[in-house]
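[audit] Reproducing an earlier prediction to check determinism. Same input, same settings, fresh worker. If the tokens differ from the archived copy the diff job will pick it up downstream; this log only records the rerun itself.
[audit] input (106 residues):
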Amino acid sequence: KHLGAAEIIWREGFGHGGIFEELNADLYSYFLEIIRAKMAEGMDKGLIRTESIEEFSVFLVSIFERSSFYFMVMKGEADIPRLASSMARFILYGLLPESKNKARPS
């Protein structure tokens, strides 16, 4: 919805200091807490397993952050539903061929 604002935060907030660095850090922490909570829920329900919720949460937020920057800012491709679906498939199933994962939706 606000790609221009996202571009400023991503370009200026990543290691340049000042207000954008703080805003970028706050957004990162916000997303990290959401992912941590959802991962804890998933573990409690037996849906996922991980050795470290913190590490895996950082991995997921980082994948989202850098992928969003590339597709939305560098390429100008803002098809959010398609990108979200593609990212979810990648996170859930990795690079496995469909024949190796029978639970994978077609």
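[audit] rerun output stored. Observation attached for the diff report: Helices lie at 3-13, 18-44, 53-74, 80-93.
[audit] end
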